[in-house]
Specification:
alpha+beta, 18 strands, Nucleotidyltransferase, domain 5, five-stranded mixed sheet
């Protein structure tokens, strides 16, 4: 049996505070997605989701992409880029037009989407996404294709993702300086949701908590789309810094201690165990008591979960209006993190990992790479953005609108 023929190739870069990662994914003629190559390296020039040194960030991007290209055996010219900072904010815009009891035609859907596009109010911010999620006919939601139905009113819910313009432009500039074209900038929670949530979780209501190095993004998904989002300027890197500061050790040793011996759950035997500060190096670096290490970890994680709880309350994800929680991002790889967060929030919590894909290496099939994998899945879905509808609508001169309505119908079904 011969190798699968690749019809399209997608490139992705996740520009994080802890690491810069790149992935090249191929879509076969049979519709299967295959990871052709992936890589990562230590981050540089990025802090809490913002580019702080464009030259250093560009160098890190170029190196990560070159490694992925070598792994894939092919070069890429354009990429989708993940963004975890830049003041991300989400809102739902509801737009309706009158139909007056007649049969809905394709031109009515065209008109609805153009109307939605013209009502976008970014308030001086940059719109990253403006995507139709659900149609409604005289009130009821969840209509996949309204064409052919009779109605008084035709409506659509549009998910709008906003960001601060300057930080996004800095990200784009850093990528372009690495001789790559930016296909689009995607909010990290949206990409992670593609990779780590099931369709049922996206539909019924789930909180996605993505713990990055310097930023934790909290998103509430319901009815197949992001309903609300908050960014918290705390992450797993703050736990590392607290370990380094408390025990007076180098940050690289603190990071290693956190990953190898750290835990979010205390054990009765912890106080009897000494862990080496540098398990792979000089024994003269000394050792620390594991109970003391766990105490620092849980204190910092407690601070983070307190902020997460406040964010969920602000997004009305409380009581019967709440639901399960999915924990992803590099911080979710800390031992005992799911149990700790579950106890703190009082909700069922699971760890979210990227879905199984052919060619995905085990090292990248972890929560820390959910955003990277999700970027490629997002690119492959190619969801409609209403900001592009007007041009398509005009170019078809309203003759039939069949290409647009088919694409919009697919977006409504595939948005998540």
């Amino acid at each position: 049996m011969g190798a699968a023929r690749i019809s399209r190739v997608f490139g992705a870069i996740n520009l994080g505070s802890f690491r810069v990662s790149a992935m090249i994914m191929g879509l076969t003629e049979g519709g299967e997605l295959i990871v052709l190559g992936s890589s990562h390296r230590a981050s540089a020039g990025v802090r809490r989701g913002y580019v702080t040194d464009s030259q250093a960030a560009t160098h890190a991007i170029r190196e990560a992409v070159e490694r992925a290209e070598k792994d894939a055996g092919t070069a890429i010219e354009s990429v989708w880029v993940g963004c975890a900072g830049a003041g991300l904010a989400s809102r739902i815009s509801r737009v309706e037009i009158p139909i007056h009891g007649r049969r809905i035609e394709e031109e009515d859907v065209d008109h609805l989407l153009v109307t939605a596009r013209d009502t976008l109010e970014p308030d001086g911010r940059m719109v990253l996404h403006a995507q139709p999620a659900h149609y409604s006919v005289d009130g009821p939601h969840g209509v996949a294709n309204p064409v052919g139905l009779y109605a008084e009113q035709l409506g659509v819910d549009v998910h709008i993702l906003l960001a601060d313009g300057a930080p996004i432009r800095n990200i784009i500039t850093a990528v372009q300086s690495a001789h790559l074209t930016v296909e689009g900038v995607v909010a990290a929670p949206i990409a992670s949701a593609y990779a780590s949530l099931t369709p049922e979780e996206r539909e019924l209501g789930t909180a996605l908590i993505e713990i990055g190095g310097d930023v934790t993004n909290v998103a509430v998904l319901r009815n197949g789309m992001v309903q609300a989002m908050r960014a918290i300027p705390l992450g797993s890197g703050d736990i590392t810094d607290a370990i380094a500061s408390t025990f007076g050790i180098r940050r690289q040793h603190a990071q290693r201690l956190k990953c190898v011996s750290g835990s979010a759950l205390a054990s009765p035997s912890d106080h009897r165990e000494q862990v080496p500060v540098d398990p792979d190096g000089d024994p003269r670096a000394g050792s620390i008591n594991r109970a003391d290490l766990v105490a620092v970890v849980t204190e910092q994680l407690g601070r983070l979960t307190d902020e997460v709880g406040k964010a969920l309350k602000a997004m009305d994800f409380i009581g019967a209006k709440g639901g399960p929680v999915v924990l992803t991002g590099g911080g979710a790889e800390l031992a005992g993190s799911a149990e700790f967060v579950q106890n703190a929030l009082g909700r069922p919590v699971r760890i979210g990992k990227p879905q199984v894909l052919r060619g995905l290496p085990p090292a990248h099939a972890t929560p820390g790479f959910s955003t990277l994998v999700g970027l490629c899945l997002y690119a492959a879905k190619d969801p409609v953005d209403i900001r592009t509808v007007k041009a398509k609508y005009q170019s078809q001169s309203r003759m039939s609108g069949i290409g647009l309505i088919n694409r919009v119908w697919r977006a409504g079904r595939e948005y998540f």
